[in-house]
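debug: dumping io for the single-chain case to check the tokenizer round-trip. Nothing else runs in this session.
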Amino acid sequence: MGKGSEAGEQEPKRRVMRDTSHRKEAAPAMDPELQAHIGRHLKAAYEDILNQPVPDRFRQLLDQLSESEGSSSEESNGGKVFGS
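debug: decoded output
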């Protein structure tokens, strides 16, 4: 019960008003030439990163995941490996 309310009295329900003033109308579509220009620059910026080898620690974790998925699928089908 809230402060100052007597036994048996119900407090009025509060209505939550959300501030929607920060919402904006949908932005107009981006110029296709500008979009292509941005896309080319993003590709160039990330190309080096995409061509880097996977770090050893990540490869180890991926190998462990593959092994655990393999053993759990064998357990679920009675040890039989599909396709053999």
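debug: round-trip ok. The mean pLDDT is 77.
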